[in-house]
UniProtKB/TrEMBL annotation:
Family label: Belongs to the NSE1 family.
Source taxon at top rank: Eukaryota
Any single GO BP term: double-strand break repair via homologous recombination
Any GO molecular function: zinc ion binding
Catalysed reaction equations from the record: S-ubiquitinyl-[E2 ubiquitin-conjugating enzyme]-L-cysteine + [acceptor protein]-L-lysine = [E2 ubiquitin-conjugating enzyme]-L-cysteine + N(6)-ubiquitinyl-[acceptor protein]-L-lysine
UniProt cross-references to PROSITE patterns, sorted A to Z: ZF_RING_2 (PS50089)
Gene3D superfamilies: 3.90.1150.220, Winged helix-like DNA-binding domain superfamily/Winged helix DNA-binding domain (1.10.10.10), Zinc/RING finger domain, C3HC4 (zinc finger) (3.30.40.10)
Record-linked Pfam families: SMC_Nse1, zf-RING-like
Native organism taxonomy: Eukaryota, Metazoa, Chordata, Craniata, Vertebrata
Record's protein name: Non-structural maintenance of chromosomes element 1 homolog
């Protein structure tokens, strides 16, 4: 496989280094970075070949159990690239960065988000759990700081006191979530990747990402479920 792949050059190494420091990058940023890396190292730059460029890096990352993945933001449907770790489940990976009770708070938050109707958990809901942590109780003030940290580290994102899983977290944890929340965690009926913020059909229970809902129903005056054809009762984003 490695023999077949294009050679890794300094332009690839620089791209990987920058992505590593960001963890995740929006598509347009990644395209700019691709161009920049090729120009700095004076290698041939093809504007439509970012995925091939990344593929070369991925072949060389294989033995390290890492991969640059392409995924979509649930907020706006934009493409992102994230460096993910395939060797460890993220919860083990997080274990090196957080204490036991911080991890427990994260798991609780994840439960609330995934079991919620719309893929969000309010800070009030989350903070209500702080005195029920098994490992070590946490003061609410302390818990608020920990939530801030999860947002900074791109495990959670927050809007007006409501928390959801960050795009990077979803890309990295998809397998973990699907296997640990069987029957609850859904794949989007349109793009087939994990859907946390979604609308769900009240009849057959399929779910769709909000950006996918918007795209799918764009041309339909009367929205019907793509799976069971029943009327789609939600507001179309």
């Amino acid at each position: 496989n490695i023999a077949m792949a294009a050679q890794m050059t300094d332009s690839h190494r620089r791209f990987l280094q920058v992505l590593m420091s960001h963890g995740i990058m929006e598509g347009s940023e990644a395209r700019k970075l691709h161009r920049h890396c090729c120009e700095i190292h004076k290698v041939y730059y093809a504007h439509d070949k970012l995925d091939d460029f990344i593929n070369t890096i991925n072949v060389h990352l294989q033995p390290l159990f890492m991969q640059i993945r392409k995924g979509t933001s649930e907020d706006d449907g934009r493409v992102h690239y994230a460096l993910v770790n395939l060797a460890e489940t993220e919860i083990t990976k997080m274990a090196s960065d957080y204490t036991e009770n911080e991890l427990e708070l994260f798991r609780k938050t994840m439960d609330l988000i995934i079991l919620s109707e719309n893929g969000f958990a309010s800070s009030t809901e989350i903070l209500n759990f702080t005195d029920q942590l098994k490992s070590k109780k946490m003061k609410k003030k302390e818990a608020e700081q920990v939530l801030k940290l999860f947002v900074e580290d791109k495990w959670l994102s927050e809007r007006n006191g409501e928390y959801t899983l960050h795009t990077r977290c979803i890309m990295e944890m998809e397998q973990y979530i699907l296997s640990n929340y069987q029957g609850v965690a859904r794949k989007c009926n349109i793009c087939h990747s994990l859907a946390i913020q979604s609308q769900v059909c009240e009849t057959c229970g399929i779910g769709m990402h909000l950006p996918c809902v918007g795209k799918y129903f764009k041309a339909q005056s009367e929205p019907h479920c793509p799976h069971c054809n029943d009327f789609w009762p939600h507001e179309i984003p």
